[in-house]
Design goal:
2 strands, 2 domains, 63% helix, binds zinc ion, 101 residues, elongated, two-stranded antiparallel sheet, mainly alpha
């Protein structure tokens, strides 16, 4: 989220001008495109991060099931929390990929 420097209206991060007062952000898209985080290597890192996050979530889920079968409930709880964090990471990376398009 961004704010207009002229009238302080809240704007989408990708806005090129203010919907309220018309303030123009002429150089903003060029700055974003030149930043390393918008490089093709960064895109590859996001895809790799999603794959690793998904694989990690599956492995942690299997660990949680094994812990339950061994009646180690505290360990199972930790594994379930790790699954939730890894899945949230996958979702966050996917949303970041949508924002930069
Ligand atoms: Zn404005």
């Amino acid at each position: 989220m961004a704010w207009c420097p002229s009238c302080r209206t809240e704007l989408p991060a990708t806005a090129v001008n203010c919907e309220s007062c018309g303030y123009d952000f002429p150089h903003r898209p060029a700055v974003l495109v030149q930043h390393w985080a918008w490089s093709s290597l960064a895109d590859l890192a996001l895809v790799a991060g999603q794959l690793v996050g998904l694989l990690g979530a599956i492995l942690r889920l299997l660990s949680a099931l094994r812990s339950l079968l061994d009646f180690e409930f505290a360990d199972a709880g930790v594994h379930v929390m790790q699954v939730a964090l890894l899945l949230a990471t996958v979702v966050a990376f996917a949303r970041v990929q949508q924002i930069q398009k």
